[in-house]
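Chapter summary example.
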Amino acid sequence: MKRNHISRRDTLKILGTGSLGVLAGRAFSIPGKQKHLITLSFDDGFEKSSIKTAEIYEKYGLSSCINVIASAHQKSPGETDAYHQWPVGDFTLWNDIKRRGHEIMPHTYRHANLTQMSLEEAQVLVEKCIDVFDQELEGFVAEESVFNLAYNASTPELEEWLRLKFRAIRTHGDHVNPLPYKGLYRLGCTSHGPDNINIHLENTINKFLEGPSGWLIYNTHGLDDEGWGPVSAGFLDELLDRLNGLDDVHLLPVIPALDTMQ
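The structure predicted for these 262 residues follows.
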């Protein structure tokens, strides 16, 4: 079967170094009439899961989308909840994974629901998150990045303020987004849990592929037994193998997907 997908080499060019998402100063387009973009957005930055996720994606010449909590690696075990009790990576790991062509993006300063505090308090946490990424992640530029809200929770006021800081945000809403266009900022997604998501993920993708062109964003977390709503590593491996062989399917992180705009 002919494989019509963007290679890992091309994705590495898109990700670049220093200025994420820039490809020779212009956008690029995906060939073909029917386009199904799929982004699996891995949250929380569990160390073992993130390493394995990157390895599975690399097996198929693909780049993963990993979103990390800025201060998680500094917390003691007593500060974690039931879904954040596993060891997380630090920025040494995140820089290594980014250099290999994967997308590393912010998932808040701490895993807080920003809608359960004042706008001013939420803004302080976002600014602290940006400060950590500025200092720790190589080549990070907030204005060229996507902010992945914890619990996919946001308010219209917070979203408008975040527009001044980031290229895009991932939050609640329809998980089938339109194909990327200039100015697309608010990205909806779906997730499932707290138990294993294999069946739900498979059904969601199958239904999406039966429909018209669009961009599916599915909010995943850890692998196997890590995190809220984990996906099995073996299932992820088989899923990527199958999807990577479909002519109209393109597996991309968020920023390279945004750069497919016409």
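To summarize the output: The chain has one domain: 35-73+84-258.
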